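Sequence in, structure out. First:
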Amino acid sequence: MNIPAPVAVPITRLALQVRGLVQGVGLRPWIWRLAHEHGLAGWVRNDGDGVAIEVQGPAPALALFRAALAVPPPLARLDAIETRTLAPLAGSDGFAILDSGRGPVRTGIGADTAVCADCLAETFDPAGRRWRYPFTTCTHCGPRYTI
């Protein structure tokens, strides 16, 4: 019986710089989940210009990742996404959220938003650990500018 040999899928690595209202809005954890959904390796971190991403994997998975990136979480606003192709790194696996980079900060601060339904439900749930806690918020709601 002839069993076909597995075909090696070429790996591509991209560097993306995301600019706009991208810090303090839950974008890095959202990108982490997106990378895991598509089986990609790399990292994401805040920097002075916004959010920097290096991601690698099969080209079709990267294309899906890049397309999904264009529809960000509710409080994020993407003004620009710059993409460069890099040489793939051998043995790169997993995706990480790295500590923020250093340098002058040129990103904006989001507007305050009303508390979301999930946080209100948590605040008024007698069995919850945030019951009657007046400052319950998440990455999708609450103060940004005033604090």
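Second:
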Amino acid sequence: MTAAYTYDDRGLVTEVTLGNGAVIEYDYDDDQRLIRVEHFDDSAATILKLEYAYNDRDLP
């Protein structure tokens, strides 16, 4: 399966588009820690959403 990757100005992956039309989006906080991953099917319906929070030791 092929995939196309999109990166932000910091070099972090923000989107992956799979060959079947599914899309995975990634969001990061100001410290470049992953805070959200959302998977969409080929009709743009959300099929999975994960959100992360970090404690004072930078652990999720």
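Remark: Residues 3-51 form one domain.
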